[in-house]
Automatic annotation (TrEMBL):
Pfam families: DUF5327 (PF17261). InterPro entries: DUF5327. This is Uncharacterized protein. The lineage of its organism: Bacteria, Bacillati, Bacillota, Bacilli, Bacillales.
Length: 85
């Protein structure tokens, strides 16, 4: 769980970064990050936010499937190396 205090500390860090920026685009990006942190606090109902949860819903589950079948080619290559022609 992430506490309000941790989020507020991060907001202060980002505000400091924004003050030091000269590029308007970088300032806007930093302020957008602060806005997102504000939304986290405002959307929270209990005072603490689960650390793995994004605002607006659950995180999608990613699954990776590995197939270990050898690729059969019929192109006349003479070896398994990428450098074989």
């Amino acid at each position: 769980m992430i506490s309000y205090e941790a989020i507020l500390k991060k907001m202060e860090e980002k505000a400091g970064e924004a003050r030091l920026q000269k590029d308007e685009r970088k300032i806007r990006e930093t302020v957008e990050a602060i806005k997102t942190l504000c939304e986290l606090i405002l959307e929270d109902k209990k005072g603490e936010i689960p650390s793995g949860t994004a605002p607006g819903g659950e995180r999608p589950v990613q699954t990776t499937v590995y197939h270990q079948e050898k690729l059969e080619t019929d192109d006349g290559a003479n070896g398994d190396s990428l450098l074989d022609f």
